[in-house]
Amino acid sequence: MSQLFAEDEVELQSLVKQFLRSISDKISSAPSPECAEEILLHLEETDKDFHNYEFVKYLRQYVENALGSVVEEETNNLTREDGQHAIGSGHDTLIHAVTQRTRDSAEYQQMIHTLKNTMITVVESLKNKFEDDQLRKEEMHHEKQHRQSNIQFTDNCSDSGSSFSQSYGFFRQEQLQVLAEKLDSNKPKEVRWEALKVLCRAPTSDVLSCESWSSLRRNLCVALSEPDPDLSDNALRFFAKSLSSSPLNVTREIYTSLAKSVASSFLSHKLSFPSGSATIDINRPEISRLLKQIRLMNDFQKEVTNFWIRHPEKYMEEVIESTFSLLSYHHEHGSPGTERVLEPVHLLALLDVKATWFKKWMHGYYSRAVILRLLERKYKSVVSGLLNNKDLSLVYSGKELEYCCFVHSLCVLGKLVIYTNGRKLFPIKIRKYKDPVTLTDLIVILSFHMHLIQLINVIKCILIHLLLVGSDVVSPSTLVMEVLWMLCEQTEWAAECLYQTPVIEKLLAPVILKSPAATLSLIADILARIANTDRGLALFLFEKNLAAAHSERTFAAHIIVQFTQRLLDKELPSLCESDMPHSLCGAFILVCRQMYNTCEGLQVLRPYGLHKALAAAWKKTSTLSERVQTPVPGGDAGSSTQELQNMLIWEETLLDSLLNFAATPKGLLLLQQTGAINECVSYMFSRFTKKLQVSSCEKFGYGVMVTQVAATAPGVVALHSSGFIRALVLELWSVLECSGDNIRVVRPKPTPIDPIDRSCLKSFLYLVNLLSSSQSVWELLGRQPLANKSEYTLREMPTSIPDLIDRLIAMNSDVKIHSLFHYEESHTFGLRLLNVLCCNLDSFLLLESQYNICSMLLQSQMGNVTDPDSSEGNIIIDSLSVERNHVLVRVSVVGGPSERRLPPRDLQEVSSALNCTELVILFHMLIGLLLPLKNFFVFCFVQIKSAIGSTKGTFPEITVECLNSTDVLKNKGRLIYKGFALEDVCFIHFIYIRRYGIYLRLLKEEAANDLALLMKHVKIFLSAQRVKTSSELSYPGHDWLASTVFLIMAGNIEKSLCLLVSLSSLLTSAFIWPARIHASIHFPKEVAESGIPPVYWCTAHYVEMLLKAEVPLVHSAFKMSGFTPSQMCLHWLIQCFWNYLDWTEICHYICTCVVMGPDYQVYMCVAIFKHLQPDILQRTQSQELQVFLKVRWSQNYNIHMSSTCHKPVILYYGRLKVLGSLQSKTGTGFKHITENYLR
Q1: Where in the numbering of this chain does the BROMI middle region domain appear (predicted)?
Q2: With respect to CATH, is domain 1094-1210 assigned 3.30.1140?
Q3: What pLDDT is attached to residue 910?
């Protein structure tokens, strides 16, 4: 098998040749023969395809045939020996031995000898054949050169070939000089044509570097303008070859020469085209020739941006300048109305309708800076010409050429105005305009194009006759929209270009003139984007300089809302009968929505009653959708299905529009009055679960709106009925206690470092937002007992807020503890949530009266010792005991930041932060609530003494003091207090108020009796001034203002009652005394029955409005966090800032509002937010804004120090505006008081 025959040699020759071709790249890259040899020796290591080569496969098969039997025989011999080389002793040893014996065999030596001789023969044959081929090629080349003239050469290269298949000829200077002479315009056509053919085959580098290039270039440019296509096309072919195969330093000169030639042709021929109905024939030789040349330029313009950054800036500048020089060519028009002069921009627009070349040039700063600099210094006429192409006084709307020029000019101008230096080009002086065209004038022209219906009809004609852009419909209105969209996206650009009175007036002209529906839909889109910005919204609401009907000046907002109402009422037959009445109406509703979802916008639009019109339209549509016939077999199912689908879309649009009233406190009241709040919240929940944005103009989801709705009783009821709260609780539980179904467990879950893990933080904040208001807590927890089951399965999940409290907070049994997978983390979560809830005093008192929260926490603390059965056990201090201790101290101590100190919540700080006052206060509270546990308290007192050294008084003295200060008699769930039967929640109020009064040295021990009597009289007095409704008449919470007045009067019941009765007749009482105005007869019945307090829909509404204007960063921080300033205002004002301000500041607050007027309540809230601005911004970044404002606000706030913040706000907005608006929300009972405050 080792012998090779003749046919084997032939096969080896082809295989070796193929192998060498495959590795030619690797060998050719070697710098020397030695390196090439080294590459071949290591080819198997470096080439992954080595074993796939046919030559290698052949050699492998040859070796196997020659040595296969030898290898098998040696292997058998070794395995039969005594085991020295047995397989068991090592497989590698066996292989090594077989290999060595095979190499020593005679067969191996014979195979190597035969293979070597054969390969030598094959290589020699290939070498001889290669030399013969080379000699043959050289002979053929010499023969061909001899037959041709001295200046001809052959180029055999192809576009796809490599350098091995190419041959080049080199031109001498004399030859190029002869070509330049033959290209002279005086020579015969045939001579010039032959010279051009030869020049096209010459290397571009030789031509451009020759001494006669200047004359060649001049003659080539002359040839380009020749009417004979043979000459012009060959000259253009040379330019095309040069532009495609030369570096930029060469192509720039070719391009500039081409641009000058084209400009010269336009200047000499002075071509024109008809401006009437006649068409221009692009097959005319002179136009066809220019189109080809401009197309070559345009192709180069699109590609040059890919590589000109690698060359000096001067090269790029020459290309740009030559382009602008060509486009700046303009000729005075001939006879108006008959013909127009054809300009380069017309043909460029035909070839590149959307100005792709200019968009690419303006994309990078490297080229954009040069473009804008040249336009500003030398070529403003280019922009002037583009503006001339937008002159609507000319008759070109039906002409394809003018249309393309218009689109091209629009794209270029639109790209210019989005850059600052591009806008600096304006104003520009153009022909036929007396005054220069400013930037505002340009936007007005663009706006005017949008409602020119003839331009829309042009599209159909153009797309039929010219397929310039394929299937892409290039509508002028759409292009203008794109330009205006780009301006709207950047506040700086829009303020300079778009937010101008002439522009808005031009945009609103179609609305006043009742233009067609297609145009109005585009107008509405732009108006909505403008209204979505602060500057645009202010322009709509407060700029009274827009011309309306009968030449009256009015606000843009009034025009828009009136037009929208007419659309809703179907008072415009021409528009209502169009193909898209609902989409047009929905577009203008969206514009109104951008206004009424802000506080200032709602103030302007509220008198029009748009919410009532939307509600009426929704009810009508809902009724009609129910009446749509069900498709039946044989009937027209398609039309009925489409009709039903359109009805449902329109119904959702109306619901969505109604829902956006809930973005502001006052808007939520209007939404509640429409009776559609439940349907709107259900619709919001369906979109919220899909994580959809509020609208195309909004960047945030529904977080703020959910928080706004949850602040009121009807809103939280709607959330509960929609399933939102259930979904929220289930999502929390799945994150807190269960692993996500879509997460594959590959390693144990890490132990959370933070008290609330990051995965649960979002759900925690949602719950805080939901339960921030005491009204929502009363609606969700009032009269709702805890389950307290005897058994909880591991798969049982809570579905409501009471269930969540039962499983996470009220851990009063081992069954609940064992039902949790992560007891410590889950209970910590519950305690943190309880801590936030208890910051609202009304919420805490409800929890305490219904669930005995403090008792449960104390029982847990009592069991948190090493030996619960003995009083000698050590106290266990862990994260849960620290959290419980913090909550217990917080709920037992009342006072402002400087009047109470709360214990730490971190274990690291406990040992260094024990405070005598805090521990004694906590000890007092323990005695008052758990009297029988005397041994435990003795033990606690011993621990306290050992921690703080000594205290004033002994344990018996403290016990007697606490027992004397608590006159409590248990009586079957009710409390008897000196003859008055009071609910549990009322009695708990008295405990805390009396304790705070004693601390302030304002009350005595027996003052609780007078407080109870005062509350009874106030309750009777206020109930007589409430409307008779089917709902509960009593105020859902404690009357904190009455308690504050009681403390101010040092516990004197007669003075307190007299002051409260006198205060009830003042306008101020409607806002600082929530219990007095609850369901008051001084409000319209629908407002009184709404269940939404005036302090929310009036005071908090104005706080949000002023906050957006005066402290915009704080307003944005609230929006980003999904929280609302109105919720915090509601929290602070209902409980009279108790626990947030010191007693002195609370008194200042009440006196300021009574003396100065209720509007100072608004100014004070704004001043507090401004005072807290640094902390608010910082906490927003760490996602703890809600917790900070409710729990950790420990800064001292001084009303006198912040009074400087009030004066600028009052001067700017005026007391008449704010105070007058507050007065207008109340009934006639307060009107006679208002005049005193308006003076």
Answers
A1: 174-384, 393-819
A2: no
A3: 47
